[in-house]
Write a structure and sequence with these properties.
- With about 300 residues, the protein is an alpha/beta fold.
- It folds into two domains: about 80 residues, SRP54, nucleotide-binding domain (Four Helix Bundle (Hemerythrin (Met), subunit A)), CATH 1.20.120; about 190 residues, Rossmann fold (3-Layer(aba) Sandwich).
- Helix content is about 50%, strand content about 15%.
- The protein is built from 13 helices and eight strands.
- Helix 1 packs across helix 13 and helix 9 runs parallel beside helix 10.
- It is elongated, with a radius of gyration of 21 Å.
- The termini are close together.
- The structure holds guanosine-5'-diphosphate and magnesium ion.
- Magnesium ion binds next to helix 7.
Length: about 300
């Protein structure tokens, strides 16, 4: 299954909320009236596009109906697809920064439970599959189980890992991982971090220390700091994004758990409201349930029946 298939499968729930009973809401020949517009707005909000965008879109449909650009309910689908594609960040080809002079260091950050460790493993697999040499760094040393979890993933996806005993200084793990990466000719070091220590300020200080230590070993490291956000938390993910981007220099986002939610519209809300690229999406618990984000593909996957039959 290609990436488009992976994303289509992951967006099934969102597509259902938006378009279930498509035949009913967008029934051929159904009159465009306030009832239909209300139903449409409700669905857009349920899919977590954000109330403002939902209201804007519905107002535009109303205006287009008045000036006869939209006549029947089925005309709305085409308009929606075009309208939601607007303002989405364009693809710029390569999805990750690359340090031309040595290992590229990628720091994974985010609150507990968003999927950092799983995403670290998925990213390692993605990079390994395309031929890069990857090393994992288990810098979530708060919980002993966190290192074990990453260790199991490392074995499963077939990459090396640097870890210390529980309670160790995460910056020391990163230091060792960077040193090992230089010695072994590694292309990417992917660093899993803790999502929570006593206070938010402590966490930010810890991440800053990791930044400093990595940068001392490898120039300009970390080259990417990816914030992992759980899409099932909907609009909450937006506030987390604001918090972390103020605390540490986030360079990109990963939206996880799109498979478990009908709130896939949050991707559109985030893409518009946060000036950061969405780099990857996670659509399941397994290592292949992961794909680079492409706005065009995403919109295509959101709309039913536009890319051929459903892949299951
Ligand atoms: N359905 C689904 N579950 C996910 C996804 N990513 C992570 N998870 C699950 O979310 C839970 C927390 O993940 P974990 O990587 O441990 O989060 P962390 O605390 O941020 O490191 C685990 O049960 C994962 O299997 C995803 O894309 N889809
Ligand atoms: Mg973790």
């Amino acid at each position: 299954m290609g990436f488009l298939g992976i994303i289509r499968r992951g967006l099934r729930k969102t597509r259902e909320v938006l378009f279930m009973d498509v035949k009913d809401v967008f029934r051929i020949g159904r009159r465009v009236d306030e009832e239909l517009l209300g139903e449409l707005e409700e669905r857009l909000i349920l899919a977590d596009l954000g109330p403002r965008l939902a209201a804007e879109v519905v107002d535009e449909v109303r205006a287009k109906f008045k000036n006869k650009e939209i006549e029947k309910s089925e005309d709305i689908l085409g308009f929606l697809k075009e309208r939601l594609s607007e303002g989405l960040a364009p693809e710029d080809g390569e999805c990750l920064a690359r340090n031309p002079g040595g290992p590229t260091v990628i720091l994974m950050v985010g609150v507990n439970g968003t999927g950092k460790t799983t995403t670290t493993a998925k990213l390692a697999k993605f990079l390994r599959d395309r031929g890069d040499k990857v090393l994992l760094a288990a810098a979530d040393t708060v919980r002993a189980a966190a290192g074990d979890q990453l260790n199991i993933w490392a074995g499963r996806v077939g990459v090396d890992i640097v870890r210390h005993d529980g309670g160790a200084d995460p910056a020391a793990v990163v230091f060792d991982a960077c040193e090992a990466a230089l010695a072994r000719g590694i292309d990417y070091v992917v660093v899993d971090t803790a999502g929570r220590i006593h206070t938010k300020a402590n966490l930010m200080q810890q991440l800053e220390k990791i930044h400093r230590v990595a940068g001392k070993k490898i120039p300009a490291a970390p080259h990417e700091t990816l914030l992992v956000l759980d899409a099932t938390t909907g609009q909450n993910a937006l506030s987390q994004a604001k918090l972390f981007t103020e605390g540490v220099g986030v360079t990109g986002l990963v939206l996880t758990k799109l498979d478990g939610t009908a709130k896939g519209g949050i991707v559109i809300a985030i893409n518009r409201q946060i000036q950061l690229p969405i780099k990857f999406v996670g659509v399941g618990e397994r290592e292949n349930d992961f794909a680079p984000f492409d706005a065009k593909e995403f919109i295509g996957a959101l709309f039913p029946g536009m890319e051929g039959p459903e892949e299951e």
